[in-house]
Each structure stands twice: as structure tokens, then as C-alpha cells.
Amino acid sequence: MSRPRPAPAADHIPAGLRTIAGYTWRLLLLGVAAYLTVVVLARLELPVVALFLALVLTSVLRPAVDLLARAMPRPLAVLLALLTATALVAGVLWLIATTVAGEWGRLGGELHGGLARIDHWLTGAPFHLRAGTVTDLRAKLGAYIADHRSVLVSTAISSAGRVVEVVTAMALAVFCSVFFLHSGDRMWQWAQRQLPARARPLWGRAGRAAWQTFAGYTRGVLIVAATNAALVGIALAVLRVPLVLPLVLLEFVAALVPLIGSPIALAIASLVALAARGPVVALLVLALIVVIGQIEGHLLHPLVLGWSVRIHPVAVALSVTGGAVLGGILGAVLAVPVVSVAWAVISELRDRADRPPDPTAPGVRPRRRDGGGRRPG
């Protein structure tokens, strides 16, 4: 008669600790995958930026192309929309250049007088600095530029390669956007056909949610940035601050970075106001940071972006900060749309998984009333 085997020793690891360990190694794998993704994308910065700009152009011009395609062939509609957008951007830049050239002589005198006023203001209460502080600072800055002229010239020459990269990215973005506008739906259908048949509905839902969120975010951010720029332009014109149009363009571009872009642009505008109009006007421009921040946070963002981007402002702030740490200004610009698209895809797939299956959908069999499919007799 065989002896009974001893019972295996009981596992003394608590169930809670085992669950935490399971989540830990999964989170570590996700963290490693995210880090490797960021490293690879950083090495492929030029095509990634070009693809992002192409998607932005597509999301902005797609409604106009669809509207024009009702009255003309779609290739002609794409060409007309791109030419109109190019002419609009070129016209704005030409207007700004003309304005700066026309005000340059007068602006030099205003800045010279403004620096003298700032110097006189700093000598009084509450600063009590010695006279000539700003003048000495300007002289030291000029001496520094004269001493390091060769270094500055070499830096400017080395940055010319960066300009070439920017132009290349823009050309590649326009090239890709032409095909996205003309046959983007067919390209997406072709990509879905390369997947297994069982995975196509899942990827189809994820793709639709991602594109709707990205397009809504892009159009909404452009509307918010244009509104901020218009408010800043009106306020600067009322306060008679010079270089209104360049500062408005700076505000528009900076507002594309949520939370931090607009205050930085207004801080630069306040420096121009300080030099040209004095400290009182500069303080009024600084007050615009608070006013426009309240309008943007409590009115524009909920009204314009609320239907497309449903992430908390804390998540927006953390995304912008993390993106800036990982990728600088480019990372700060890309962070919020990436997080918004990822959250929209996760929410769409989770909501669909929680819903009961539709008995009328293809491939879904109706539930039987008993286990064998035959009603009990």
C-alpha cells in the first residue's frame, strides 16, 4: 500500500500583494514600451512632425474640400482649398512685414524714449536703483554682442540647417495632406483590409473615435487661439501699443500650447508696452493675462472644446509639462492631442465592451430561450 503524498505547503503570499505585483509588472512593461516609443519618435522627428502637420491641415481643410467637392471634381476642390489657405497665410505675413517696416523708424524713437522713462522710473520708489541702470545694461548687452559676434554668427549659420528641416517638414506635410484630403477614406479602408477580419470592427471604432477627437481638438484650438489673438489685438490697439499685428500673430501661435503659451506671449507684449508706453500700460497688459486666462478657461474651452476633448484640466497641465520635459516646445504642442486621442479611443472601446451585443448586427446570433434552441414542449 503506497504512502499518501504530503500535502503541498500553503502559499502564504497574500492575495492583495499578488494583485499588486501583477499590476506592477504590467505597468513596468507599459512604461518601457512608452519610453521606447518616445525614443524612436525622437529619432524620427522630421517625419513625425510632417505627419502631424499633415493631419492638422487635413482636419482644418476637410470640411471646405467636402463642400467644394459637391460642385466640382474632388482633385480640383483639394487644389482650390490648398491655394486659398496658402494665399491667406502669405497675405497675413505680408501685411505684418509691411506694418513692421512702416513703423520701424517711429518705433526706434519710442523705444529710446521708453528706455529713458524706465530708467527714471526705476530710480524712484519702491526700487531706488541708481540712475543709468537701463542704459548701462543696454551698453553691456551691446558690448557682449560685439565680443561674441563670431560665436553668434556661427550659431546662426548652424541653425540654417534647422530652417531647411522646417521647410522640408512643411513640404512633406502639404504633400501628405493632398492625398489625405483626396482619398483619405480609401487609404483607411485599405489599411483595415490588411488586418484580420475579426479585428477590423475594433480598429474601425478606434480609428473613428481617434479622428473625431483629433479633428475636433485641432479646429477648437484654432478657434480659441484666434479668439485670444483678436482680444489681445483689440486691447493693444486701445492702449496704443506698437507692433500690434506681430504681437497678435505671436499670441495666436503661442495660444496653440495650452495653459502656458498665451501668458508667455502677453508677457512679451508687456515688455514692448513697458518700453514704448511706460509702466502703467505695461501693468494693464499684464492684467490681460488674468482676464484672457479666465475667458479661455471658463468660457472658450468648455464651449469650443467640451464636445471633443473630455479630459480634466489637471490632466492637461500634466500632459503639457510632461511633453515639454520629453520633447521641448514640440512635445508641449503634441502632448494634449496625443493624450486626448488616446483617452477617446480607450473610452470608446470600453463603452462598446460594456454594451450588450446588438442582435441585429451582422455576426451576432440571437440569444436562445433555452440551452438547446428549441422551446420546451
Main β-sheet: number of strands, strand sense, barrel status?
A: none
Number of strands: 0
Helical run tally: 11
Question: Which structural class fits the helix and strand makeup?
Answer: mainly alpha
Oligomer: single chain
Unreliable stretches, pLDDT < 50, 5 or more residues? 361-377
What's the shape?
Answer: globular
- Number of separate structural domains: 2
C-alpha-based Rg, rounded: 29 Å
What is the typical, i.e. mean, pLDDT?
A: 78
Alpha-carbon distance between the termini? 54 Å
Percentage of β-strand residues: under 5%
Order of helices and strands: HHHHHHHHHHH
Helix content: over 70%
Verbal overview:
Helices cover 79% and strands 0% of the residues. The chain is mainly α and 377 residues long. It folds into two domains: 42-183, no CATH class; 198-354, no CATH class. The chain is globular, with a radius of gyration of 29 Å. The chain starts with 14 loop residues before the first helix and ends in a 23-residue tail after the last helix. The model is unreliable at 361-377 (pLDDT under 50).
